[in-house]
Amino acid sequence: MLKKLTKNKLNIAIGLLWLFHLSAIIGISLGNVAWFVEKTPLNLIVSLLIFLVFYPINNIKKVSAFLLFMIGGIFAEWLGVKHQILFGEYAYGANFGPKLDGVPYLIGAYWAILTFITAGLMDYTKWHKAIKILGAATLMVVLDFFMEHTAPIFDYWTFIGGIPTLENYITWFGLGIILQSTIKLMNIKGNKPLSANLYAAQFTFFLFLYFFLP
Question: What residue spans define the domains of the chain?
Answer without folding.
Answer: 2-212
